[in-house]
Amino acid sequence: ASVSAVHPKNQKFLDTEELKPLASHLTIDINQLDNELNVVKHFIREKRTTMNTIKDLLTELAPVNDAFPATTSLLRGALCLPVSSTTCERSFSRMKLIKTYCRNSTGDERLSDLTVLAVERTFNIDLEETVDIFSTNHQNSRILLR
To answer: Which Pfam families match (predicted)?
Structure first.
């Protein structure tokens, strides 16, 4: 219920009481958030009808981010939460495969990197551009990558 209160189409949109659990979870000062939300509601009153998502709201507040740090932190936190448990389950499933494959000899940092690669494997990387960036950043390397 707390996350739904940041959605522009919700009846309890930006209701402080509804947002308290999410704010405390994200360690956001509730008093500061309450003060900011009173101003934000008036700031976006006319534009609320054109907003369909939390991202639209965050985009609208981006130019005045410094004026509403608690509110923007709350919105970013809400956007980072998985919509369903499927996202989490897929990540854990991939992590289980990676952890088994690497035979538990993988350190935490490498495991984290491998998990990101496995979960986001549809991300297209231009290898030519990667090689060019590497070669310009490592000019003292003995291998010429072309």
So the answer is: Dimer_Tnp_hAT (PF05699)
Burial 58-95 (b: 16+ CB within 10 A, else e): bebbeeeeeebebbbbbbebbeeeeeeeeeeeeeeebb
14 exposure class (CB count in 10 Å sphere: 0-12, 13-18, 19+): buried
Domain boundaries, the chain: 3-80, 85-137
Contact (Cβ atoms closer than 8 angstroms) between residue 40 and residue 61: yes
Report the C-alpha gap between 57 and 47 in whole angstroms: 9
CA 66/CA 90 separation, integer angstroms = 36
The rounded distance, in Å, linking the Cα atoms of 74 and 10 is 16
Candidates 114, 20, 128; CA nearest to 74 is 20
DSSP 139: T
Calculate the average pLDDT of the chain: 77
Specify the range with the lowest mean pLDDT, choosing from 38-42, 79-83, 124-128: 79-83
